[in-house]
Amino acid sequence: MNSCYICLSHSIVVDNIEGALICTECGSVQEENLTWNEIHFEHDHNREDGWIGFEDGSKSMDEYNTKNECSIPESFWKEANNMLLKLPTKYRGRVKKGVYANCLHQVCMLHNTPRSLKEISVLLDIDMETINETCKHMKTYQQSEQKNTIQQHSMDQDNEFTKMLPRYMETINSYMMDNSIDKMNKNKKYKLIKQICEWLQNENLMEGKTPHTKIVTCIYYWFEHKEDDQLLTMTKKELCRLFDISIVTLNKSYKQLLHNFSNL
């Protein structure tokens, strides 16, 4: 007899609409691409709504009422399955069942649809001991997701600076040409952009300042501390006027930048 790959129940029925095998205990679709759907009820012609059929009739009415009242949207089941598939380890049997319950609980919390672990344990016919034992696997997933989010944020920020800096360099060059100042050549611009990008990879650099303020401050720092090409220069006042930033703001961010560099 067929058994569910999640809860090992033998309550497998054919969904006449989708033509798939469905577990009436936990709602899983018994297919190779393993997606989760809402619990499909068996039809009772004496009622407008469906009801959950129990194989041996041993389930209590309290359990049925809990399952009926704890309805969870179909999208939550699918999201929980995707979360399960993203975990670095593949689970089987009882452990897989417990991990999935924790995934479903996490999805419900993320969507502000509170469902207790106790409700989910009854819904999926899983004992609380199994759920509690497997919650550590969800912590691993959450830590991994948090790390990926931080890395992605850092990459997005680096890309943002990389795209913005060439425009700042062109603005400076145009100003220099208009004011008969030697402009930066391509090699100089490339080195400056590369240097500033390296500085700004440190997220703690001038923490709390906008990307615009950070870039202008780094440019000013570069002009103040460059060792070659003394003719290539811009004053603080010129930079502030050119990039529409107040001298007070630049002074504060520059002081913060010097403090950050001293601690590197």
TrEMBL record:
A Pfam family reported for this protein in Swiss-Prot or TrEMBL: TFIIB
Record-linked InterPro entries: Cyclin-like_sf, TFIIB, TFIIB_cyclin
GO molecular function, one term: TBP-class protein binding
GO biological process: transcription preinitiation complex assembly
Key words, A-Z: Transcription, Transcription regulation
Domain Transcription factor TFIIB cyclin-like residue range list: 91-139
Keyword Transcription: yes
Any GO CC annotation of this UniProt entry: transcription preinitiation complex
Keyword set includes Transcription regulation: yes
PANTHER family named among the record's database cross-references: TRANSCRIPTION INITIATION FACTOR IIB, TRANSCRIPTION INITIATION FACTOR IIB-RELATED
The name this protein goes by in its record: Transcription factor TFIIB cyclin-like domain-containing protein
Source organism of the structure: viral metagenome
